[in-house]
Amino acid sequence: MTPLNTFIDHTLLKPTATQEEIKTLCSEALKHQFFSVCVNSCYVPLAKQILKNSTVKVCSVVGFPLGAMSTAAKVEEAKNALKNGADEIDMVMNIGFFKSGDFTAVAHDIKAVKQIMPKNTLKVILETCYLNDKEIIKASELAIANGADFIKTSTGFGAGGATIKDVKLMLNSIQNHAVKVKASGGIRDTQTALEYINLGVSRLGTSNGVAIVSGDNNNNKSAY
Questions:
Q1: What this chain does, per the record (predicted)?
Q2: Reduced to 3 states, what is the DSSP secondary structure of residue 203?
Q3: Of the residues 48, 57, 123, 152, which is catalytic?
Q4: Which residue in 104, 102, 103, 106 sits closest to 94, CA to CA?
Q5: How confident is the prediction for the chain on average, in pLDDT?
Q6: Which is catalytic among the residues 9, 87, 90, 109?
């Protein structure tokens, strides 16, 4: 089996995150050889500086956490993050446009970001807690059709995080596509992490990466 640590995007996205906390996040990622650290775009330069001589990638969120920013704003934030050293981008789908049935606008939003990063990994966050089953399938299809390399469950700031049911719907949607699934939100312990991996997810977003790989699940952090 692929080592558990290589599935983890070690995450710190809370609004009060300090520079020292980001440094600690990066140190933990180096120690445990996580796949990446996932940070807000303002911290991409700091994370890249610390991780530049390692295999740990830097992931930046874009349009976070609401997804309601203009497409132009998302594109510029993504450009800036990539310029500063981000390897991957996790962008939030425009949930309001989606709920309005304006699928053309949702598609344009995703495609516009992917067009400026054809060689970098783009993960599209669906925020599944706000979607019913049919909407999860439709959102997955839109993201896949417009350049997503991953579809991702959650920001960790919504009404709920990843669920087995939602992830199964997303995994079913990527069949016959070279697209992967990232589960995030509420993954706090080793057992839960393995459950999602065994289902077929390729990445886990969590602030509890150290506890998950060490089996110390008594000192968990936030829901993300």
A1: Catalyzes a reversible aldol reaction between acetaldehyde and D-glyceraldehyde 3-phosphate to generate 2-deoxy-D-ribose 5-phosphate.
A2: strand
A3: 152
A4: 106
A5: 96
A6: 90
Report whether 124 contacts 148 (CB < 8 A).
Answer: yes
Number of structural domains the chain divides into: 1
Instruction: Give domain status of residue 221, yes or no.
Output: no
Are 195 and 164 a contacting pair, CB within 8 Å? yes
Q: Is the pLDDT of residue 218 over 70?
A: no
- Per-residue tokens: 27: 């140190």
How far is residue 100 from each of residues 104, 135, 186, measured CA to CA in Å?
11, 12, 28
Q: For residue 166, tell me if it sits in a domain.
A: yes
The answer to whether 110 and 140 are in contact (CB under 8 A) is: no
Longest CA pairwise span in the chain (Å)? 45
- The predicted structure's pLDDT at residue 28: 98
| CATH number of domain containing 72 | 3.20.20.70
The answer to whether position 223 is within a domain reads no
Q: List the catalytic residue out of 48, 74, 123, 182.
A: 182
Domain of 184? 4-214
For residue 220, being part of any structural domain is answered with no
Those residues whose C-beta lies under 8 Å from the C-beta of residue 90, and which sit 6 or more positions away, are 38, 59, 60, 61, 62, 64, 123, 125, 152, 182, 205
CB 156 within 8 A of CB 223: yes
User: Is 152 considered catalytic here?
Assistant: yes
- The per-residue pLDDT for range 10-37, each reduced to its tens digit, is 999 999 999 999 999 999 999 999 999 9
Residue 45's nearest CA partner among 82, 19, 84 is 84
3-class secondary-structure state, position 115: helix
Per-residue tokens: 119: 């060689």
Strands 57-62 and 88-92: parallel
